[in-house]
Design a protein that fits this description.
The complex is a heterodimer.
Chain A (H helix, E strand, L loop, with lengths): L2 E3 L4 E9 L6 H11 L9 E4 L5 E14 L2 E9 L7 H7 L5 E7 L5 H17 L9 E6 L9 H8 L6 E3 L8 H18 L1
Parallel strand pairs in A: 2-5, 2-6, 6-7, 7-8
Antiparallel strand pairs in A: 1-2, 3-4, 4-5
Chain B lengths: L5 E3 L1 H18 L3 E6 L4 E6 L6 H21 L7 E5 L4 E7 L2 E7 L5 H26 L7 H5 L3 H6 L3
Helix pairs in contact in B: 1-3
Classes of the chains: A alpha/beta, B alpha+beta.
Chain lengths: 194, 160
Amino acid sequence: MTFINYASREINCKIVYYGPGLCGKTTNLQYIFDSTAPQSKGKLISLATETDRTLFFDFMPLELGTVRGFKTRFHLYTVPGQVFYDASRKLILKGVDGVVFVADSQEERMDANIESLYNLEENLQSQGYDLMNIPYVLQLNKRDLPNVVPVPDLAAELHRKSEPVIEAVAATGVGVFDTLKAVAKQVLTELRKS
Amino acid sequence: MADTPIVMREQQYHQIKAVLAKLRLDSSARVAFLVDKDGQQIAVHGDVSTLDTTSLASLAAGNVAATTGMAQLIGEKEFPTLSHEGERESIHISVIGRVLLIVVFDERSSLGLVKLRVKQASVELASIFEEVIRESSKKETAEASLFAEITDEDIDSLFN
């Protein structure tokens, strides 16, 4: 939920990166963290297992600049992608202002994408949100791999509304900031409407 | 969006800061800190020069969310307070409606004293926050229209 503080003149918003295990959610955050100037970001917190799988969430605060005299701060979170961490995923969606679904473009991960997207819709509903009404971006990640599903097929399968669809290679940064921009823009536009 | 944004006015902010300042003094704590349940920092009082308050806010919210999840699994609504005691530094977290009051303290204080003072401060903070929530849900105040004036150019300029 957006938090507007008139005393410190700040707007704080929460964006959650969702998607199946190993689709590149943490990699998105890691790239944003590595490419942002130190004064614009806080620490990247990763609650991960010993094998670097997300256990609870990754978190990084990012300051984008000022709008009408208000500092805009985005809190970026990832969820753990592995199926059995569903209780944790639900918790992280609380108070969300925008969602990025990171899809793994590889053929063999198609079922995992579909399952995770259903899971997102369900978990949003359990928190009182509707995917159709919240700022949302679909990122098609790992486009550099040889065994990827063609973009139109992937988009046709995973598209839910008129959300922006962005091709990405998160490991090298392709599409990472375009994705963030697309979701942040919708969040701020939503604020204007409210 | 399901929730309306929380909007905090300057006066309410200063009221909260005053409660936190008193709490910190009365409990001999290092830091008294208020965050919302989503991990957004609201106000802080004390020595935070060596403390990453943004990370602390998100982790405390995650901690409370996880323990609330556990509480529900065993048939409780939530665990209203959490304490973590370390060798030198300790943390006490209490849930006050939609916000969390976090107190960081060391050997100059004690868990008993912190709990007592937190209980007193919670009543004041709860009433200030009721007002914040009530005013946040009011439609179209003069300040709210400020955001209606945000243009596409304003938003684009953030990414240049």
